[in-house]
TrEMBL record:
This is GTP cyclohydrolase 1. The gene is folE. Signal peptide: none annotated. InterPro entries: GTP-CH-I_C/QueF (IPR043133), GTP-CH-I_N (IPR043134), GTP_CycHdrlase_I (IPR001474), GTP_CycHdrlase_I_dom (IPR020602). GO terms for molecular function: GTP cyclohydrolase I activity. It is an enzyme of class 3 (hydrolase). Belongs to the GTP cyclohydrolase I family. Pfam families: GTP_cyclohydroI. It comes from Microbacterium marmarense.
Amino acid sequence: MAVDRERVAALVRELLEAIGEDPDRPGLRQTPERVASAYAEFFAGVGEDATEPLAHTISVAQGPAPETLPSGAVMVRDIRFRSICEHHLLPFRGHAHIAYLPGEQVVGLGALPKVVDVIASRPQVQERLGEQVADAIASSLDARGVLVVLAATHECVTMRGGQQSDSSTVTIAARGELTDPIARAELIALLPARGLNRGGGHAG
């Protein structure tokens, strides 16, 4: 379902009036339309199927390189993401690190960032975002295990309340064989320290 830009713009105008501003002054005259365009981008994943990027799989045994059967995990690190916290409608952003233990089917590596993009482009909380990414991969591939690690900074933490500007949040979602702490410890050890300690420091 597409974002109703006209309705968003009208509500932003009303919001500006509610905080005591004049939406007709020069600096704010185009703000409702600008916010509506931004929201159309931020929430483009609402109603979208996050498993669609995973629909095209490649047979390992019968594909173009059957001699390269993976013996361990496939990992994509440092996937930049941004989302909007559903509690305060403030951004959070950071890096996603995804690993899976392939079965007979694999996907192109570019499919995994697309899954993150779709699910992040909704009102979210970080914990659910990671779980939904893990579920999408686990339900679409014959993976023996899935691991999703998210590291992010939240503007509802850094800009309001205690204003903890150096705070970051790390969440882990695991499925299958990677629910075993020992099995996933090896993969977590491969993650970059900066991607875990300062989740949003380099996100776009």
